[in-house]
From TrEMBL:
Protein name: MBL fold metallo-hydrolase
Metallo-beta-lactamase domain sequence ranges: 12-191
Organism lineage: Bacteria, Bacillati, Bacillota, Bacilli, Bacillales
GO molecular-function term, one example from the UniProt record: metal ion binding
Source organism of the structure: Peribacillus glennii
Cofactor: Zn(2+)
């Protein structure tokens, strides 16, 4: 199983493509630049099965409709942010320059910490609110990696000054859900470079003293 990081849009939001030996793939957070993302997938002859959203802020969902319509695949999101796809005030797009984002509803609503099976891909879902109410981290236990969205970054943590943000809740999510994972777990964040749980436990200044 392989993963590739594809920063998209002016905020360089990380879209991740997780693929298996059969060339099937899962798309995480198609934030913008749909043509670039579609070409990337086609060039590598990948066969997308689904789009998984870590949360519904505008910079993580901008290319969602184009991508899922092109490949005829479903999108998954947490129930607490299902309405955000349709509402620029909730997804934050009306607060920033550019066109307000109004998307179609998600195809599947996630409502609990459970195991999600899509083809040969198996994820454990962690509810990790704080950056946003419906933030989800997708843990691929067999490969020791977690797609954490904007919860935890290399040397930093997610912002909590947007609607629905809560700093104490974010810190609780990080410590109880992410830092409890094996220390060699790879953290694939929504922005910036990849890191590990061990590195963040050792050197992330925002986690000291919590």
């Amino acid at each position: 199983m392989k993963w590739n990081q594809l920063p998209l849009g002016p905020l360089q939001t990380n879209c991740y493509i997780l693929s298996n030996d059969e060339q099937e793939c899962i798309i995480f957070d198609p934030g913008e630049e749909s043509a670039k993302l579609i070409q990337y997938i086609q060039t590598r002859k990948l066969k997308p099965l689904a789009v998984l959203l870590t949360h519904a802020h505008f910079d993580h969902i901008g290319a969602l409709d184009q991508v899922r319509e092109f490949f005829k695949i479903p999108a998954y999101i947490h129930e607490k942010e299902a309405k955000w796809l349709l509402d620029p005030a909730l997804n934050g797009s009306q607060l920033f320059p550019g066109e307000p984002i109004r998307l179609k509803p998600a195809d599947h609503i996630l409502a609990a910490e459970t195991e999600l099976q899509i083809g040969s891909f198996s994820f454990k879902l962690f509810e990790t609110p704080g950056h946003s109410p419906g933030s989800i981290s997708y843990y691929l236990e067999e490969k020791g990696m977690v797609f954490s969205g904007d919860v935890l970054f290399k040397g930093s943590i997610g912002r909590t000054d947007l609607p629905g943000g809560n700093h104490d809740q974010l810190m609780k999510s990080i410590h109880s859900k992410l830092l409890s994972l094996p220390e060699d777990t790879i953290v694939l964040s929504g922005h910036g470079p990849v890191t590990t749980i061990a590195d963040e436990m050792e050197s992330n200044p925002f986690l000291n003293g919590f």
